[in-house]
Amino acid sequence: MEKNFLIGIPGVNYFMIAFKVPFAQILSSPNGALMMEKMLRKYVVPELRGDNILLNTNVPEYILTSAGLNKWQYVKPISSTVSPKKKRRGNHP
Fold first, then answer.
1. Which residue among 40, 44, 58, 89 is least crowded, i.e. fewest CB within 10 A of its CB?
2. DSSP reduced 3-state for 74
3. Does residue 79 fall inside a structural domain?
4. pLDDT-derived band of residue 78, with 50, 70 and 90 as boundaries?
5. Is 67 a domain residue?
């Protein structure tokens, strides 16, 4: 989910819309929230038909609602913010 929107029916099936840049990196940029909102409108909203919902929990809820998603169209986010993963030092896998 770091670079993908997951869309589908919980516990049944899903598909991914993949991006090259992690969402945390996008959101940390000055216009990140606006960029994410545009991505949701362009790629996710058209796929939310039938029982499909957005399964990501790493997109802040205020961005989901500003992109036009209703509460029944997404899984409740874990956090209102997204922070980038910390890089490991040394020879850790």
1. 89
2. strand
3. no
4. confident
5. yes
**Tokens read off for 29:** 């940029």
Task: Residue 22: give the domain boundaries.
Answer: 4-73
User: What is the H or E stretch that residue 53 is in?
Assistant: strand 53-54
Q: Is residue 9 part of a domain?
A: yes
pLDDT at 87: 53
Q: Return all residues near 31 (Cβ < 8 A) that are at least 6 apart.
A: none
Pairwise CA distance, residues 21 & 7, whole Å: 18
Domain membership of residue 27 (yes or no) is: yes
17 SS3 class:
strand
Backbone angle region of 90, left / alpha / beta, with phi > 0 → left and psi within -120 to 50 → alpha:
left
